[in-house]
Amino acid sequence: MAAADAKPAALRLNVPPAMAGALRLDPVASPSPSRRLDEAPKTPSPSKTTYSDRFIPCRSSSRLQNFALLDTHTSPGSKDDTPYSRLLRAELFSPDSPASASPSTNLFRFKKDHSAPTSPFAAAAAQQDCTAGSGETASPKKPPRKVPKTPHKVLDAPSLLDDFYLNLVDWSSQNMLAVGLGTCVYLWSASNSKVTKLCDLGPRDSVCAVHWSREGSYLAIGTGLGDVQIWDSSRCKRIRNMGGHQTRTGVLAWSSCILSSGSRDKNILQHDIRVPSDYISKFSGHRSEVCGLKWSHDNRELASGGNDNQLLVWNQRSQQPVLRLTEHTAAVKAISWSPHQQGLLASGGGTADRCIRFWNTANGNVLNSIDTGSQVCNLAWCKNVNELVSTHGYSQNQIMVWKYPSMSKVATLTGHTMRVLYLASSPDGQTIVTGAGDETLRFWNIFPSVKTQAPVRDSGLWSFSRSQIR
User: Rounded CA gap, 418 and 469, in Å?
Assistant: First the structure.
C-alpha cells in the first residue's frame, strides 16, 4: 500500500549542477481526454513519421485511361437506353469502350497506350498490344514496300515525238518492245537487247501509234496518212494495209481478231483481219480527236477518250455508246481497265483537269476522284497486285504508283525532263517503260511478282546502262 500511496517522482533533468538551481520546472497536469480532442498539435515533430492503414494514390499521375470499363448489354427501347443514358455512358466511358458489350466480356480490359513512351524500353514494349487473359499478341506492322527511285536502264530514242495525242511505245507478251521514231518502227528485245528495224514509212508518212496483238505475233501501226498496217514481227513483213480514216490514226486497241483504231477525224473504226474489207463498223460519238482507246479484259466493252473531254463506253452490239461520261474537263488519253474487278475503269484528264477518276461501268457511277496536280498522260493497272501507275506531264513530269482503293501513294519517281507521254508494262507485270519528249526510254522496277510479292532484283542483263535503240 505504501507504494500505491507514494507520490510520483519529480521530473529530473540531466543538467550540470551549476544550472540546476537556475532552472525551475513546474509540473503540468495531464489534460483530460476531452481536452485532448479539442486541442490539436500545433506543429508535428519532424522526426516522427505518421503511419496509417489506408493509402489514397494520386490519380493525376495514374494512367487510368488505359483501362476501359465495359458496360453491360442494354436492349433498344429499355429504360437504360434513353438518350440521357447514352450521353452519360459516352461521358463516363472511353470512346473505345463499346456500350453494348456482352456481359460475359471481362470487366476490365487493358487497352493500348497511345501516349508517347517515357523510355526506350517502353517504346519497345508498346509495339506489342496484349489482351489481358487471352495470351494473344498482335503481329507487327508490315513495312511499306520499297520501290527503286532510279531507272535500271535507259535507252536513247532519237526523234521520239513530244505529242500528247500519239501512242508510240508498246511491250508485247513475247517480251519485245516496239517504238515509233519519226517514220520508222524499231523493235528492242528485252531478252537479249537486240535492236531490229521493222519498217520505214517513207518521207511522206509518219508513225503515230503502235500496238501489239495479245499473242504478241502481230504489230499494228497507225500512220499519219490515216492507214492501219499489220506487220508480222518474226518475218518483218507487212501482211495488211487498211484505210478508212481521213487523217492520222493516233491510237489502236486489239480485241482478239478485232482491231479498233481512233483518229483525228473523230471516228473509231473496227477492223477484222479475217475479212478483206478495210473495216466492218464505225463508231461516231466524239466531237474531237480520239486519243485514248482500251478494250476490257473480257472483250465486251471498249472505252474511248477524246480531245472533247469525253469518256465513252461501247459494246460490239451497238453503234451508239452505252455510257457517256463527261466529268473530265480536259482531254482523256489515259484509260485503263482493272484486271482485278470487272467493270472497274480508270481514266485521267489533261492539263486543265489533272484528275484520275474511277468508274463503275455497270451503272456509270463515279467511284472516286483524285487530283494528281499534273496532266495525266497514261494509266496502267498492275496484274500482280491491286495497284496502278500513272505518268504525268505539266508541270512535274513525274511517275506515280498508287494503291487501290485507298489511293495512297506508294512511290513518286522522277527523272524525265519533259512530259512522260508513253507507258508500257512488261509481260511479267513487274517492270514498266516510260518515254518522253526528252528522247529517252526509262525502265523501272516498281511492281512485285505474283509469287514473291517483292520487287525483282536487277540481273546482269538489267544492270543500269545507257544505249541507243537505233
Answer: 19
Measured CA to CA, the distance from residue 414 to residue 307 in angstroms comes to 27
Q: Could you tell me the end-to-end alpha-carbon distance of the chain, in angstroms, rounded to an integer?
A: 135
SS3 of 5, please? helix
Question: By the 8 A CB rule, do 251 and 209 touch?
Answer: yes
Please determine, for residue 261, whether its predicted confidence score (pLDDT) is greater than 80: yes
Question: Is the sign of the CA dihedral 113, 114, 118, 122 positive or negative?
Answer: positive
How far is C-alpha 382 from the geometric centre of its chain's CA atoms?
A: 13
Would you state the cell numbers that stand for residue 88, as one nine-digit string?
452519360
Nearest to 304 by CA among 352, 340, 251, 343: 251
Q: Which three cell numbers stand for residue 380?
A: 496502267
Q: Are strands 466-468 and 153-156 parallel, antiparallel or unpaired?
A: parallel
Cell numbers at residue 113, please?
A: 497506350
> How far apart (Å, rounded) are the C-alpha atoms in residues 336 and 391?
13
Per-residue pLDDT reduced to its tens digit, 319-363: 899 999 999 999 999 999 999 999 999 999 999 999 999 999 999
Q: Kindly report the number of other CB atoms within 10 A of residue 380's CB atom.
A: 19
Q: Cell numbers for 409, please give them.
A: 501513294
Residue 300 CA to residue 303 CA, distance in Å, equals: 10
Residue 32, CA distances (Å) to 5, 35, 36, 43, 194 in order? 22, 5, 6, 21, 116
Residue 159 amino acid letter? S
CB burial class (10 A; 0-12, 13-18, 19+) of residue 351? middle
CA distance 410 to 404: 10
Smallest Cα–Cα separation from 421: which of 458, 461, 394, 448?
394
What local confidence, expressed as pLDDT, does residue 171 receive?
A: 98
SS (H, E, C) 176-216: EEEEEECCEEEEEECCCCCEEEEEECCCCCCEEEEEECCCC
Q: Which helix (H) or strand (E) holds 157?
A: none
**Residues near 151 by beta carbon (within 8 Å), at least 6 away in sequence:** 415, 442, 443, 444, 464
Residue the block writes with cell 507504494: 3
Beta bridge partners of 412: 400
Partners of residue 281 on adjacent β-strands: 270
Encode pLDDT of 190-214 as tens digits.
Answer: 999 999 999 999 999 999 999 999 9
Burial 274-304 (b: 16+ CB within 10 A, else e): eeeebbeeebebbeebbbbbbbbeeeebbbb
Q: Is the pLDDT of residue 70 over 50?
A: no
Q: What is the CA radius of gyration of the chain?
A: 40
